Amino acid sequence: MEFNRQNAKRALEEASKSNPGAWTDHSRYVAEACKNIARGCKNLSAEQAYLFGLLHDIGRYAGISSERHLIDGYRYCMERGWEKAAHNRLEAAYNGWEAAHNGEIQKGGFIMKAVFIDYTGTITKEDSPIIRKILMRFCQNSNQKDPKKMMAYWWELLRKYEWESYQDAFRTEDEIVDLMLWDCQRELGLTDHLAELHSMVQESWSNSPFFEDVADFFHTCPCPVYIVTNNGAEYVEAAMEAHQLKPAGIVCGDMARAYKPRPEIFQKALEISGCQPKEVLHVGDSLQSDIAGAAGAGIRAVLLDRTGEKKETDCPVIRSLRELF
To answer: What letter would DSSP give residue 163?
Structure first.
């Protein structure tokens, strides 16, 4: 039987009937991730990578059998004449065991010992009830009545102050918010209670809803996950505890006295994780803060573009955290 996309998809569909479960969707996510990674590597076929990813768990057709599904997958592929796919299953049986015992994983041609991940916009949703409530208060009590323009103004101020907050001139996020509120008062005629607005901003840092794929990512990631964020660690810690998720560490701007996209915050994450730049992968939703920032520290990065609206980029792109592994 020819080893092509049509036959591989049919094989997965038939296997899912024998043993229904979430493993089939997982296989599809892995296939997309393999394809995206191969596109960024020389001498790798994106189509072959997709097919191998699609069938990497095909042995589960036989039922729940722990690691035995790797051997079942080998036999399944050999029976169909898919020799390369079969050998891929045996390699997975060996490498998977080795990775599990060393706390690292081989991906895209390099050994990965840790994953760095952004917080706002990657773990938490920026469009949340508390954010909408803050915007409503701003628009009701200032000269700026357009929520989109108000949001754009706020983000521009935030990026400006974060960039200026560096080393001896460093300011915490709470200090920056005070400066931004005073600017809104002076430039937009804001008449609202500033202390109340500041408290609401703090609540957005620790109480914004998480994206649906975040819990699965933390539960299934094969290596330690470190959150690299401009937000204060205490707010991120509170959010993670509320969702019962335990990152290996939280690295914030205060620790490096620098905010993303400056390289110092990524270098601090490397120091805390004990990894070299070539041993980690960073994932985030911002081309500037995450992709360019990680690159400045020599770290490979993957852009998370859930909506498919980001402009073209040379780095790998995923639509869901489930596609990373």
So the answer is: H
In whole angstroms, what is the distance from residue 22 CA to residue 145 CA? 46
The separation between the first and the last C-alpha atoms of the chain, rounded to the nearest angstrom, is 28
Nearest alpha-carbon partner for 269 in 287, 244, 294, 289: 294
Strand order in the sheet with 300-304: 249-252, 225-229, 114-117, 280-284, 300-304, 317-318
Q: What is the pTM of this model?
A: 0.68
The closest of 115, 114, 126 to 231, measured between CA atoms, is 126
φ, ψ of residue 309 to 5 degrees: the values are -105, -5
Burial of 138 (0-12, 13-18, 19+ CB in 10 A): buried
Give the Cα separation of 197 and 63 in Å (integer): 54
Please provide residue 310's backbone torsions phi and psi, each rounded to the nearest 5 degrees: -70, 150
CA triplet 36, 317, 87: central angle to 5 degrees?
20
List the structure tokens of 260.
């993303």
Taking only the tens place, the pLDDT of each residue in 20-47 is 887 788 888 888 888 888 888 877 888 8
Q: Residue 92 to residues 37, 71, 127, 285: CA-CA distances in angstroms?
A: 17, 10, 40, 30
- What is the amino acid identity at position 72? D
Stated as kind and residue range, the H or E segment containing 72 is: helix 68-79
